[in-house]
TrEMBL record:
<comment type="function">
    <text>Regulates expression of the glpD operon. In the presence of glycerol 3-phosphate (G3P) causes antitermination of transcription of glpD at the inverted repeat of the leader region to enhance its transcription. Binds and stabilizes glpD leader mRNA.</text>
</comment>
<dbReference type="GO" id="GO:0006071">
    <property type="term" value="P:glycerol metabolic process"/>
</dbReference>
<keyword id="KW-0804">Transcription</keyword>
<dbReference type="InterPro" id="IPR013785">
    <property type="entry name" value="Aldolase_TIM"/>
</dbReference>
<dbReference type="GO" id="GO:0001072">
    <property type="term" value="F:transcription antitermination factor activity, RNA binding"/>
</dbReference>
<dbReference type="InterPro" id="IPR006699">
    <property type="entry name" value="GlpP"/>
</dbReference>
<dbReference type="Pfam" id="PF04309">
    <property type="entry name" value="G3P_antiterm"/>
</dbReference>
<keyword id="KW-0694">RNA-binding</keyword>
<dbReference type="GO" id="GO:0045893">
    <property type="term" value="P:positive regulation of DNA-templated transcription"/>
</dbReference>
<keyword id="KW-0805">Transcription regulation</keyword>
<protein>
    <recommendedName>
        <fullName>Glycerol uptake operon antiterminator regulatory protein</fullName>
    </recommendedName>
</protein>
<keyword id="KW-0319">Glycerol metabolism</keyword>
<dbReference type="GO" id="GO:0003723">
    <property type="term" value="F:RNA binding"/>
</dbReference>
């Protein structure tokens, strides 16, 4: 799966941000906070505007984050992909042919070691590393896992984006609208 050279993945929490992004040059958009009752309409709206939504399954209100929820999302909602911290959700997403993005919180060495074991088991299409402001860890995870990396979390400036990309991240997820605007001109 290719992101069509999209270096920024806008991550939205509010519908007004989605409305802005529907008119943007970005193809892939991350939906962070949502309610199960709104998902189908949101994904359909995005699709009608040529957008591909990546749903963060862990942050959907009204939906338990397990393999049954992943099956529902894949079969009924049909986003472009699903992001989750849970291995069983990633496995089910891959089985259904959607983009599977394993989100990792790399808080310490123990979390990093557990993450490598998880990645061996799930083999996601992408890894989202949080926080995304640790370039040497982005490089290490990319080299060791051999899976493309998204950097996210605590990305606040163009310099943060450039450092993450320079360390080997394929793209950066961010909810900072200033960064969307800056990189939209370059998308």
């Amino acid at each position: 799966m290719s992101l069509q050279a999209q270096r920024i993945l806008p991550a939205i929490r509010k519908m007004k941000d989605l409305e802005k992004l529907l008119k943007s040059s970005f193809t892939y958009i991350v939906l962070l906070d949502s309610h199960i009752g709104q998902l189908k309409n949101i994904v359909d709206l995005g699709r009608a505007s040529g957008k591909k939504l990546l749903l963060h399954a862990d942050l959907i209100e009204g939906l338990k984050n397990d393999e049954y929820a992943a099956e529902f999302l894949c079969q009924s909602i049909r986003p472009a992909g699903i992001i989750s911290t849970r291995g069983n959700v990633i496995t089910k997403t891959k089985q259904n042919g959607l983009i599977a993005i394993q989100r990792l919180f790399l808080l310490d060495s123990s979390a990093l070691d557990k993450s490598y074991s998880l990645l061996e088991r799930t083999q996601p299409d992408y890894i989202e590393v949080l926080p995304g402001v640790i370039p040497h860890i982005i490089s290490e995870v990319k080299e060791r896992a051999g899976i493309p990396i998204f950097a996210g979390g605590l990305i606040r400036s163009v310099e943060d984006v450039e450092l993450a990309l320079g360390a080997g991240a394929t793209a950066v997820t961010t909810s900072k609208t200033e960064l969307w605007q800056h990189y939209q001109q370059r998308s």
